[in-house]
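Name: L-rhamnose mutarotase
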Amino acid sequence: MIRKAFRMTVYPDRTEEYEDRHNPIWPELAEVLHQHGVSNYSIFLDPQTNALFGYAEVASEAQWAAIATTDTCRKWWKYMEPLMETHPDGSPVSHDLREVFHLD
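Structure predicted for L-rhamnose mutarotase:
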């Protein structure tokens, strides 16, 4: 199992809508995530900076990367694009974070 952490940014006036769109998350997206070995996935919001901190446990980097090739993921990106910083292909601007400490 690989622990992944990353940072994204939601637009200041869209934080409430961002949260609403995740509650509940689309069942088909949850299924894609599970099928690609993702578990224990959380996203946190820093309301002072509008930074989103994501954490997920993944079975492999290849499976994690393959999620982006699914129709469901691309549909989700399009749905979320108005709410957050994105790349031209609609994917969220995301910065991986390096783990510096872990305690089991």
